[in-house]
Amino acid sequence: MTDFSRWVTPLQRRSEEPTEAGGRVEYEDFPCTVDVTGPLLHTLFQERWQEVELGHVVQGSVLELSFTEPPKIFVLYDGYLTVVTEAWHLHLCVEPHVGGPHDRTPEPLRHQRLIKRAALYRRFNANNRPVSWGIQFWNGSDERMMTLFLPNPYIGEGEELLPEGKPQLEKLGLYETLRQIYVLGEQPIPYSENPLKRPYLAVCRSGRCNPSRNWQPTFDALQEAVDAVGLDIAVQTAGCLEVCKLGPVVFYSGDRTWHTRVTPEVAKQVVQQHVAQGQSLPDHRYPRTNHA
Fold it and tell me: What are the start and end residues of each CATH 3.40.30.10 domain in the chain?
């Protein structure tokens, strides 16, 4: 794992593309490594969620989703950032998707799914006036992925167009701040470490296999052990962790390890021996070969 840097090295890559209506879209690229996209997405989805929307834009169709409250789940697992709200959820590949404990994802597919390009954009109309601001991602096949829509000074709180000549220019503050940090590199990333990479322990609560349905005692034992040792590690639940029929299953993101048949007593060993001391639990680690 490389050291986290709070300063983004600017790509100094700017491009434009014309629109069918006679306008243009201006793109300013920024690095798309997880140590850049992680802090960016944490800011937008965890701290500034009231101000952003997201979706997809193609000719003939636009999808826009908004947050009504902070996400219930915001977690990185096997390359995918998962964000869950009461009404919808999303997955975005910000690191190579290896394919679970057996590394089943072929290399070409890992490359295709991963964010390959990221850019802040401004859309201009035919009169050369900027009319929308946002962030665009592309995958390894140069296909447009998710679009993030940033606050628009010409649109009111009820999505109505504001009167001509009365824009709320303060709404551009988020765009300008992100540009200073991620495009120009003139301000530091506002975190001392990548918030997406904070280690966590996850307990599978999937109903696909009977053993995992009894996850609560394992979860409680993990939390008690983490508190007792004094570790700064989140304990949370997860959907299917891809080791069906061997539950309860526990995943540790710090070194990408799965443990199976984790009873409350084994849960304490996972924390005290594996997480705190780096000692393997060969009888419960899955698969038996090293995937750290």
Answer: 199-286
